Amino acid sequence: MTKHVYQKETTQLMQDLNTTTAGLTQAEAQQRLQEMGLNQLAEAKKKSALFLFLETFKDAMVIVLLIVAIVQMIMGAHVEALVIFAVLLLNSLVSVIQAKKAEGSLDALKKLAAPDASVLRSGQEQSIPAKEIVTGDIVILEAGDYVPADGRLLEASTLKVDEGMLTGESTPAEKEITTLSKEAPIGDRINMVFSGTIVTYGRGKFLVTATGNTTEIGQVADLLESTTEQKTPLQRGLDLFSKKLSFAILILSLVILGVQLLRIFLDGSVDVTQDILNAFMFAVAVAVAAIPEALQSIVTIVLSLGTKKMAKHHAIIRKLPAVETLGSTSIICTDKTGTLTQNKMTVVDHYLANGQSGEFSTDPKKWQTDEQRLIEISVLANDATISKDGTKLGDPTEIALIDFSENKNQSYQKLRKQYPREDELPFDSDRKLMSTLHTIDQQKIMVTKGGPDIVFERSTKVLRNGQIVEFTAELKNQFQKQNEVFAERALRVLAFAYKEVATDSLTLAEEEDLVLVGLLAMIDPPRAEVFQAVADANSAGIQTVMITGDHKTTAVAIAKEIGIFQPGDQALTGVELDQLSEVELAEKLAKITVYARVSPENKIRIVRAWQEKGKISAMTGDGVNDAPALKQADIGIAMGTGTDVAKDAAAMVLTDDNFASIIKAVEVGRNVFDNIKKAVAYLFAGNLGAIIAIVFALAIGWSNPFTALQLLFINLVNDSLPAIALGMEKAEPTIMKRQPRDPNSGIFTGKTLISVTYRGILIALAVITAQWLGNQQSPELGVAMAFTTLILSRTLQTFAARSNTQTSLQVGLFSNKMVLLAILVCGGLFSLTLLPGLREVFAIPSTFALKEIGLALSLATSAVLLMEITKLILVKIQEPKSEIQLTRN
Ligand code: ATP
């Protein structure tokens, strides 16, 4: 019987897979990738374009129209029938194109967020897209990583993996390096890791034995990621609204049908069947034209255009609703290190127990024992490296430490060779410590570095001038004072300690009774763009709160510098936060702008407290333990350099880790919401105009102002293109000067509703006047005039819909070329109706000549001009009121 992967010796497995401890060569890996294919699970099939196309014919309205067209055909009205077919076909095509475009941009987003993995290739560690992993690769795992493939562990230090998704086990599985003798279920294969599970603690290295669909998860079909669409609150709101509206419009159409049938019955008719058919078709056309069926895809397109724009500004949206929520964000809780600061650390000072600080000799021969030990700990309890080509790999804090050693002419590599690492307790931000085990001068020594307060707590002795002495209260006081002095200079401080141990493998319990050696202090300058970003956030009514693992004094010093901590504000440590009751926290919340030495659990509490106050809060994070807080926040923001787990829990990922990118994303989010509003208002105003004109004509006994075909045509011409073009409008100049949007207010808040109604009425007035003018000659000319005026005024309305506060000239006529293009296309499509041959189909009589077109155009233009002038007047009246004093909430 063949042995399973977990039963073989690793040397045997390596041979089987034709690989070495240095990993595959690049060429071999490429070759295997060609043969085996990508390391990814087969995705759920997408709907084909044909399927989407056919799906559009499921719509009840479309079916009715098709039936009507077929009856028309049988009755000999071939041209009319053909045109209906053509219009329906075009409508369906446009929907398919829109749906595919929306899908395409969502796919692009997914790709941007695809995970990477660290592999060894020819002995060099490198980061590659996880889907390019092949069997035989050696993968390095760290806390927070998703395991990218199945494999056998080669190294594991305190490695714990959450395998719940495969085994249902809620506590993480502890991994070991061993060979199992018996067959074991997945949960008991402690020497293996499986694709899709999460490293929650420690580090490890494994040999890939299965990728893609051959992995355990690949074989569990129903665990395959299904591509369920996520709807945003706005989309859901609009869905509901559309449903209600459609119902109202259907009733209206029935009423229109009823009135028309009554007329046919009362007035008598030459061709009853044809008239009934026409009445029927008109009623359906009214419904089709008035129901905003393009709305959903337009909203999706505008949202995904927004996500594209955000991606350009280094913010990758992982959950579509976030685009909208960003616009309502009023609190941003942000990490300090790397987000507000550059994360480019440089050691600038040190402190030893004998009081020495400042100058640090660049001649290692002159170092005393204390200095020597300080440097040893700083490079041994350290994972950073400098590769052959000079690139520095690892945590910036640790890079700073090896840089310091190198600058003082002590090769960190030499020390690491001299005292190889025998075991380790990796850093985690809850413990704020890291320790490693070495043999130094024939003694087993554990070296530890970490947050000074934590190291002080765990130290009982001090190394002073080469002697180990008691860590007296006086000495402790001296160290604490120095720590404060560094912190006030906004420096980040680490403490270094060691201990002789009597073991070959470390446990967390060993990190006690340490011998404190000294401190190193680093600068980490604020990012240049952060000053402006914090100011922008402030004027946009958004409060920035710093949440950091760093020391309180350091945090406050930096927060003051960049404008987050203002006079009267408070700073709290995690411990102080724990002592506050919910009520006390709620009271103080608005004033606390810095939280220091926090644990990830503290972060959840802070977000919750803000949410209790009804504030939409964004929260940044990068570690495994940050995931719950990122989920809890209205917008979880993960760092591009953060763990897979954090990214997965987040709604947005910052590819440059930069706070300024969050503020940019907020601006884009606000703009997207504005633009969706503009597009929706444009659509509804046009539809309303048409409906008012129809109801008016019907009420005073005129003939229908439009034929059914005309209505369908207008629906095709005016619905999609201008609305999408409006979705691309640039941000209004005041966008970051107003308060965040109330998340509960829908799209039709007072102002939008009023402007939709106003613009609808103006369009209707223009159409009614046109029909009246035409009617003076003949009802046919009245219809042609009404149709032309409606199509032109709806098209020109695009100009008025571009801004709520500025005229199109003020916005810049050419600032959104898509609007001009959309208007040109609409105009072009309209002129088709005037072509000989098509004129009859569109019921345009020969009496409709240049003068009539001129008239219709003037009426349409007047309506739009009135819209623009009203805007100017309203802005003038409201100006003094809109200068709201921005206060901190
Ligand atoms: P922020 O939360 O703003 O990103 P941070 O980097 O200080 O700030 P953590 O990474 O959680 O937050 O680190 C918490 C603390 O742990 C640090 O302030 C420092 O004292 C200590 N620390 C950070 N990195 C290491 C490390 N590599 N080894 C040992 N201790 C560390």
UniProtKB/TrEMBL annotation:
Gene3D superfamilies given in the database record: Calcium-transporting ATPase, cytoplasmic domain N, Calcium-transporting ATPase, cytoplasmic transduction domain A, Calcium-transporting ATPase, transmembrane domain, HAD superfamily/HAD-like
Catalytic activity: Ca(2+)(in) + ATP + H2O = Ca(2+)(out) + ADP + phosphate + H(+)
Pfam families (alphabetical): Cation_ATPase (PF13246), Cation_ATPase_C (PF00689), Cation_ATPase_N (PF00690), E1-E2_ATPase (PF00122), Hydrolase_3 (PF08282)
Organism encoding this protein: Enterococcus dongliensis
Subcellular location: Cell membrane
Cation-transporting P-type ATPase N-terminal domain: residues covered: 4-77
GO biological process, one term: export from cell
Membrane topology value: Multi-pass membrane protein
UniProt name for this protein: P-type Ca(2+) transporter
Keywords for the protein's UniProt record, in alphabetical order: ATP-binding, Calcium, Calcium transport, Cell membrane, Ion transport, Membrane, Metal-binding, Nucleotide-binding, Translocase, Transmembrane, Transmembrane helix, Transport
Entry GO CC: plasma membrane
Gene Ontology MF term list: ATP binding; ATP hydrolysis activity; metal ion binding; P-type calcium transporter activity
EC number annotated for this UniProt entry: 7.2.2.10
Transmembrane regions: 50-75, 81-99, 245-266, 278-303, 680-702, 708-727, 818-838, 853-874
Keyword set includes Calcium: yes
